[in-house]
User: Fold FAD-linked oxidase from Hufsiella arboris.
Amino acid sequence: MASTIKQAIGSWNTLHENGPFPAKFLHITSLETKANMPSVIDRYNDATIEIRRLLKEAMTKGEGFRAIGSRWSMSHIAHHQDNMQVNANMNIKKAMQADELHPQSAFKPENLFFFQCGNVIKEIHNFLAENGKSLKASGASNGQTIAGCVSTGVHGSALDVGSVQDYVVGLNLIIGPEPDDVVYIERHSKPALTDQFAANIKSRIIRNDDLFNAALVSLGSFGFIHGVVVEAEDRFLLKRYVKRISSVQALELAASLNFGDSPFKIPTETDANGKGIRPYHYKVFINPYVDQSEYVVEMIYKKPYQPGYPDPIPAVKTSIYRDLILLFIKIAEKWDGTIPTLIKLLQKSILPPVDLELTGTLYEIFWDAGYQGPAFACSVGVDHKDSPKALDLLVKLAKEEGPIPGIYAMRFVKQSPATIAFTKFPVTCMIEIDGLLWDAGKNNMISLKQFCTRMIEVLKANNIPFTLHWGKNADWSFPGLAGHMYGGAAEQWKKLRSAILSPEAAKLFSNDFLKDLHLDEYLENEPTVISQPVIV
Assistant:
């Protein structure tokens, strides 16, 4: 049987030490061994029973419950003061078979895979590679769990692919302690798997587009995400270039994404007419404290997979234009340990020399994270057409009301259909600000919370629609924030959450993060039609 170790902990912290937060208990769940239970589905269902037991225990005591993965988020989205369940050991993987596809499915069976919640992206990369497949996109690093990525909307910088949740085609949720509280959800317009598969994992099936889109980016609050069905694709290679270009041209590309007509071209990445090819990925790096005539940009192009390419990992290990905090640490390598000295260094430092060109798979290019110490990260999503203006405002904020010990980047991501995905614009520009945590009082500086508040106020004052990355630092209790960012979509999300959860379950899966955003509100008498399948 699956088992859980319960630990009294007193406090809990994120990977990048953005707490500590008070917490009573940590529950570490492990699966039954393969030797004792060889069937993948049996072990998965056995874990379902264990999670239901934990939920019943918490609900009986009137306590809350929250699953956590790799502790990657810098906000308090993963925290709960009562019970926190570690799902890192829950990592079953399964390739779907042709007879498990719904008769109306448009998916290829060889591209569908079932992953339990605790699988980290690195594990998934390896499993898919063994099957000749790849994820479509991932974040800048690979240590997050799949459930954490989906529920917070982790993105890469894929112009035409989207975020991690955008290639999820099925969700298995445990929404309470009873056997009937295990559901498998798909879109009714794009069914993926058979009713029999849902029955095999002891789930009642719901096919409903609105519910699925709301549950995709659920903030951990639609229930316990036990498993996801992912659509992968054939393996491919990525050719990565890091170049210095005119800052004017970099921002023109940000606003237009017209790579064909841009005066900046990579000679080896043009079409038959000499026009620039649209890249798979576009990223701009900015030191806000130095007026730069040139920016460093990272441009990545998708290529067919061919074996025998040179191993890119040695070069990736030394690459500094990969993870933004890693670049920040490289710039700050002469830092003597005081924040004022670090700020002065930033005010003098141009960005380091560019990296070598390299080719590798998605897994290899976006390899292991290089820094896991105390850090902050803010990430603002805007329509890419607004990105030059938004960047200018946020840079001025850092200069005039800061300084803060961080640098900036811009990434560009395809729109997500998820109801409250922060990649909500046709192409969203994520303006990222990463750096080291600081003591505002000790250094007579603006605090991180004040800076986060001012970011919201400045964007609102200049009428720039925006979103905020759910897993990063922000003023999450800013009045009316969710409604301002999502309008009626935030209300729709609450309605659908209320429709699928009982009042007791809604309370069970709420936490302070949800309450700060006023998304914890339970709306009585919401339609129950979504509890029935649309396609049978």
In short: The mean pLDDT is 93. The CA atoms of residues 245 and 294 lie 5 Å apart. The two ends are 33 Å apart (CA to CA). The chain has three domains: 3-234, 237-475, 482-517.
